[in-house]
Amino acid sequence: LECPGLDTATGEEFLQEVFQILLEEGVRKSTDVTQKVCDWKEPQELRDLLDLELRSDGEGRERLLQRCRDVLRFSVRTGHPRFFNQLFSGLDHHALAGRFLTETLNTSPYTYEVAPVLVLMEEQVLAKLRELVGWSSGDGIFAPGGSMSNMLAMNVARFRRFPESRSRGNWDLPRLGLFASQESHYSILKGAALLGIGTDNVHLVRTDERGKMIPEELEKEIQRVKAEGSEPLFVCATSGTTVLGAFDPLDAIADVCARHGLWLHVDAAWGGSALLSPQLRHLLAGIHRSDSVTWNPHKLLMVGLQCSAFLLHDSSVGAPHPEFMLLGCLPGPLINFGAPCSSQGLLQRCHGVGASYLFQRDKFYDVSLDTGDKSPQCGRRADGLKLWILWKAVGTRGLAQRVERAFSATRYLLEQVKRREGFQLVMEPEFINLCFWFIPPSLRGQENSLEFWDKLGKVAPAIKEKMIRRGSMMVGYQPQGSHVNFFRQIITNPAVTRQDLDFFLDEIQELGWDL
Ligand code: ABU
């Protein structure tokens, strides 16, 4: 113990080299259109190549640097202009700088004392997102992904209606009813299971041919569920569904919720960023009438995984949950020394426990900045910093341009899909999700035959396999409702050019030609 147990000089030299590798392989090559999007290996081949076994002795510098290169080499280049596989893609240098800063700081923004800068940035970013929703007050917290943000919404909605459920659980609650559209994100079902509400109590409301929730069907479902003796609680509307990119009619849904006194949550994980664009924000008209919103800037704004904001309209203050006070009075590991907090926001009343080792009330600074108890998490990533730095770099206008460019790129591709023989739209896109089939020459003209759709459903997976093995690009496909497998093209990366989009269609045509 006489000397430090870490060799910092060698560590810094190693890091210098890793930074070079990151810049060369992780940033430059990963975004270079002349490089492959992925270097496909079968799992066992990759296991062998990576030499994954963890041994008793450590390895030398050169070997470790090679391992760092291998991580980048054999991973998918999500920043590549021809990676269209997910709702996230691209590489923003400023946001990446934010991610480096976050990683280097290695702290959790649960208290101001360990993360002063990050807590204030998070506060600012959340306030700005709320302002774009149309709220002048409220609360919020960053969560690990949109699914968790949606689950927070369900939990807060239940707590507001039944505050005693926090301590007593679900056992003496009425049977609750949750409502979301047939096209809603699967996290609503997962959340219902996780919170003990039960997936049987999630009522999937019919959508129209564009994938939008039908408000009259919502009304009918609520009436039906009430008649069966359940208590409707929560409606999740979706602004930008995962596959079709559909936007539910928020104003009409808000009317239904107001009539029945239901919590309205908007899952705008994907479409929320349209609020930045004066031309596109009409897609979310009525969002200001909601109680809570999920918004993932890591998708369309290219902030980097992960950055999911849970935004809450409620700005009521009240006494902490009795449990919070109780823990402050009893001896035990969670004793909260200091004066009990007299007023807390809904998020903190719902989740706060006041652990004595983090949230002491007798600190010398404004403890309302100790925001960690608003979250069910303890350790939490500081996901606001990278968005703050990106916002500083490009401004609100730059963020809006990013959204509008993605929209324009989709319109260009749409025109090309309509023009080219063999490409067939699933439907006119409302947003950035372009859904289409490629019909190989062997199937053309057979649209009325019995096997046509069966055979067409096998085309997208076959083309996808070929493109991954070739490493030329990546795009997602899925079946949806009565539609057999089709491609879902998503362009969020501003590095994508018209040439990339032409290449995209040429490549599908080439890979699917002989199927
Ligand atoms: N949360 C849904 C994201 C899935 C996708 O990237 O397609």
From TrEMBL:
The modification N6-(pyridoxal phosphate)lysine is found at K299. Keywords: Decarboxylase, Lyase, Pyridoxal phosphate. One of its GO terms (biological process) is taurine biosynthetic process. One of its GO terms (cellular component) is cytoplasm. One of its GO terms (molecular function) is pyridoxal phosphate binding. It comes from the Eukaryota. Pfam families: Pyridoxal_deC (PF00282). Its cofactor is pyridoxal 5'-phosphate. Belongs to the group II decarboxylase family. Homodimer. This is CSAD decarboxylase. It comes from Molothrus ater.
